[in-house]
């Protein structure tokens, strides 16, 4: 009999501050493009992340994967490096990468993909605010 495919999601919130600023742009360009988000002293967000995996529902365990394991991976990839941090100053990845929600989604995707079995990670959804939401599914283009 063919296996059923399921999607499971774990939600995690964290707090962090950041500033949108690109080292490859002039100060004037940074101000024009990022506006208030380029404020030198930064600003904060209560981020919410949804991590979704997709896979076969195991006939013996009834699970796509154990949510307890997913919770532990989220602790390593999201909470330890990002919670209560200044993204630009405390997280080496963002030293030269602008801390947009798009790039934050990629950071989380790459970290989760390293810990999960190949092909299981389906989607990272980051709510920067209630109104600003980014989805990343590992896609790339040339
Ligand atoms: N493509 C992106 N654009 C912007 C990002 C981003 O990550 N990707 N981020 C920001 C800022 O970080 C900023 O904090 C957004 O906040 P704000 O505009 O205040 O948020 P809201 O739209 O939810 O607030 P309202 O003023 O209530 O509409 C900017 N752009
Ligand atoms: Zn912001």
UniProtKB/TrEMBL annotation:
GO terms for biological process: tetrahydrobiopterin biosynthetic process. The keyword Metal-binding applies. Its EC number is 4.2.3.12. Pathway: Cofactor biosynthesis; tetrahydrobiopterin biosynthesis; tetrahydrobiopterin from 7,8-dihydroneopterin triphosphate: step 1/3. GO terms for cellular component: mitochondrion. PANTHER family: 6-PYRUVOYL TETRAHYDROBIOPTERIN SYNTHASE, PYRUVOYL TETRAHYDROBIOPTERIN SYNTHASE. This is 6-pyruvoyl tetrahydrobiopterin synthase. It comes from Phoxinus phoxinus (Eurasian minnow).
